[in-house]
């Protein structure tokens, strides 16, 4: 079993000031000694209530925010203190898919330009760009004709397909998905999850999948990572955690699933 990423003892604190004269301040431990290993080619779901530190963890791993302490090894390279030049190369291999694709797609750009942008930044020639764009648009279930359209001409599910195409165009190894289906209808959610699964098989992708929806976890994740108040509460294989949760917190999370998971609700088709 190979790990694409190992992070050890990550900590990140935020100081928040309160009160009219901002005299009161408190420290929030958004990450409190978090260690995480991500297995290559698999999906690791990060779950936990709002404010538990899921997005902070994702941002720390791709170095969008600094960490106070800890270390991160990505694809065999210690990236904890790398310089801007190296970071640019590493970023190519880690991409993100967001909850609201509309917010991350420039409304004034045609889909072709949206997909060409990361390729331009990485100096791909015109011919290679066109080839890659034509290939990826079909892989995500859209058509070449769609490349001439603007984001507002698509449905939510289709926009998320465009977001996925953009994330995959540079052929990353790790894709961090932050609530990628939360804003979609349940039937559309299932289609997008199936798409993500088939792309994972085809390109040997690794997903770090942040979600608060445990039905989604059950559907897509090999392993689960449970967070509360910036700490790791529990981690392990999805079926084992669902069958035998150790921490009270995980038990409560499972119990709160709409429709109750014990009934083995078949999600999607
Ligand atoms: N830039 C910031 N400045 C101050 N506090 C922050 C900042 N970013 C996050 N926090 C705090 O850190 C904690 C963890 O936030 P984070 O966004 O990681 O939670 P989350 O698990 O992603 O929640 P959600 O499910 O709502 O997206 C929260 O208490 C949040 O208020
Ligand atoms: Mg978040």
Largest sheet, spatial ordering of strands: 6-7-8-3-9-10
Please provide the count of β strands.
10
Radius of gyration: 19 Å
Largest sheet: 6 strands, mixed
H-E string = EEEHEEHEHHHHEHEHEEHH
Quaternary structure: single chain
- CATH A-level architecture: 3-Layer(aba) Sandwich
Overall tally of domains: 1
Helix content: 25-40%
Distance between the termini: 30 Å
DSSP helix count? Answer: 10
Which hetero compounds are present in the coordinates?
Answer: adenosine-5'-triphosphate, magnesium ion
Kindly identify the CATH topology: Rossmann fold
Strand content: 25-35%
What would the average pLDDT be, to the nearest integer?
A: 91
CATH class category:
Alpha Beta
Low-confidence stretches: 260-269
Query: Structural class per helix/strand content?
Result: alpha/beta
Shape: globular
In short, what is this structure?
With 269 residues, this protein is α/β, with parallel strands linked by helices. Helix content is 37%, strand content 27%.
Structure description:
There is one protein chain. With 269 residues, this protein is an alpha/beta fold. The chain has a single domain, classed as P-loop containing nucleotide triphosphate hydrolases (Rossmann fold, 3-Layer(aba) Sandwich). It contains ten helices and ten strands. The protein has helices at 54-61, 84-93, 101-104, 111-121, 126-139, 156-168, 186-203, 214-220, 238-243, 248-255, and strands at residues 3-18, 24-39, 43-47, 69-74, 77-78, 94-97, 174-178, 206-210, 223-228, 231-237. It has a six-stranded mixed beta sheet with strand order 6-7-8-3-9-10, sandwiched between helices. The chain has a four-stranded antiparallel beta sheet with strand order 2-1-4-5. Residues 260-269 have low confidence and may be disordered. The protein binds adenosine-5'-triphosphate and magnesium ion.
